[in-house]
Amino acid sequence: MMIMIQKILKVLAVRTMRAYKPKVIGITGSVGKTSTRNAIQAAIGDAKRIRVAEENYNNEIGLPLTILGEKPQGTSLFGWLGVLWRGLVLSMGAKDNYPQWLVLEYGADKKGDILYLTDVARPYISVVTAVGIAHTEFFGTIEDVKEEKGTLVRALPEDGIAILNADDQNVESM
């Protein structure tokens, strides 16, 4: 059931992004994503309509849920049906006050995860906090982690902005 929900959430999130065209600030890194997300939210404040990822909504289910303004429904079939229905309505452009900015976390447990997420929501601003050994058990080497995290920077449009941690040589080289 969750694979089907994941696929439908992706379609609804992509349609929602096309309908409203919010700017996306994408955050990735081995550490500090949540603190960075909170700092960006505080810096933008009330100046713009903004939606920020809650908790660790940084995967194939959580990122689309953030775009849709929804929460996971566990094993509740009716709960998920409600999420999908509201997502369908939202994806048709039915809301006047959709956020102008989305601050999203892009997590990765395996190669290709960030590419999947950038296919859902392409960032206008990419923030890479750090590349560390924290995820090497999933990727094998630190170079593989760096390659995966760098996907967020490579996804930027031509006029996009990369904010890179110059104190981390793996990030600075992106």
- Succession of helices and strands: HEHEHHEHEHHEH
Radius of gyration: 16 Å
Terminal-residue CA separation: 38 Å
Helicity level: 40-55%
Strand order of the largest sheet: 2-3-1-4-5
Report the uncertain regions.
Answer: none
Q: What's the total count of β strands? A: 5
Count up the helices.
Answer: 8
What is the chains' assembly state?
single chain
| Class by alpha and beta content | alpha/beta
User: Average pLDDT value?
Assistant: 92
Shape: globular
* Beta content: 5-15%
Biggest sheet, in brief? Answer: 5 strands, parallel
Describe this structure in words.
The chain has 174 residues and is an alpha/beta fold. A five-stranded parallel beta sheet has the order 2-3-1-4-5, sandwiched between helices. It is globular and about 45 Å long. It starts with a helix and ends with a helix. The model has no long low-confidence stretch (mean pLDDT 92).
List keywords for this structure.
alpha/beta; 5 strands; 8 helices; 174 residues; globular
